[in-house]
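step 3/5: co-fold with iron/sulfur cluster
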Amino acid sequence: MEHMNQNNLIDSRTLNLYEKQEKIYTRRMDGFFQRIQLFTGWPFLFAFFITPWLTIDNRQAVLFDLVETKFYIYWITFWPQDFILLSWSLIFAAFLLFFITNLIGRVWCGYTCPQTIWTAIFTWAEQLAEGNRNQRIKLDKSNLTLNKILKKTTKHSMWICFALFTSITFVSYFYGLYEMSYDAWNLNLSSPVVFWLVFFTLATYFNAGWMREQLCKYICPYARFQSSMFDEDTLIVSYDECRGEIRGPRKKNLKPKDLGDCVDCSVCVQVCPVGIDIRDGLQYECTNCARCIDACNSVMNKMDYKKGLISYTTLSQLKGKSFTWKRPKLVGYGLAVITMLISISVLLISRPLVHLDILRDRNLLYQEVSGGYIQNSYKLNILNMSEHDNYFTLKITGLKKISIVPESEIFIQAGTAKNVAINVITDPDQLNNLITKILISATSTDNKLVAEAESRFIGPSSIQEI
Ligand code: SF4
Ligand code: SF4
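step 4/5: write tokens
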């Protein structure tokens, strides 16, 4: 009995840290910042869906060909050899994001992140099928009727159609839109393609339809470490507590002296896609989407109060200080961005468009051929990364009086590699050392493309080193 009492005591004192996820019914409201989102979101969406349709030189303009390990981005083709360039580009993108975040906060999350844009489209479809916020709440609470089934089916059908459309577009960046359409028309889609189409359809449907803000809150790492990029001059969405408190309802044109400007209408909470109350202060869930600003401004308008009770501001401005550019983080991120941009530009401009790999025949050190000449064998792999077919001439430096068999001129198609086996033959009198360093080069006929690689020429052991 005593043991049971103890358990009951512990149970009654246990704090339940689990909170059930409440469904968020976002209220849609128009406003200045929502219109800005149209200008940032729609071009991105348009570019995403239209790009796979573009072609350059009879190929898809943007194609990430994982089988051939080639990335086509408009007029530039990236090869595995360009991995360093890709790494620098990703680091550059990360630092650019840090710089922008330090300057204007989570503008990426609020205006351009695909999760934000797709969620906005899915909530728009939801509103179209089920009505406004109040109607949706009422519908969810109502019993199952034919009308409810019809509305829910319409909503999910729209979601699935858009998710499928998104998935087809996304996979076409890797498989090629025309190839995929052709295979689909002939009912010949390979199982990996079908798998990825189904996977991305379901991922889009669940992310934008069901998970929404939970992905930002619990999965996206950016939300977690963004605060480390903030400083007192970073632009944030903030509620002016001094002006707003003490909050309380009142009639229009009637303002009790003991109340601030906040009429406690909770419209700012109803429009928030992550379901937070900005009046509680800066929270990591806030994506800086500014919907609460638009919502509160419309309330202030109706009340004939000054706009800006919720606004984009900085902690410095809230403390009465003025904005400054001279901030260690901002300058540091800015310098890193400029340095990387210069490095990437230099790498891009100077990247070789032909690559040469040499493998010496390891089975045979050397061979004596007719006439007493010495022969070494090599396997060359020449990669023509340019957009044009080319003839390449082989040249060997480091040895005098040599001949290359079978040929020194090789034809290689644009964007392909060729394996070539060559024999290099020389007079032993030309060899001063047992091992001679040689340089093999492949030069295009117009002399614009040159690749070089070092190797060794091995002679007989009878050669005395000088
Ligand atoms: S608090 Fe305001 S800015 Fe932040 S996510 Fe909610 S609506 Fe957007
Ligand atoms: S919308 Fe403005 S007035 Fe209404 S509760 Fe939010 S902060 Fe207060």
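step 5/5: annotate
The first strand starts at residue 55 and ends at 56.
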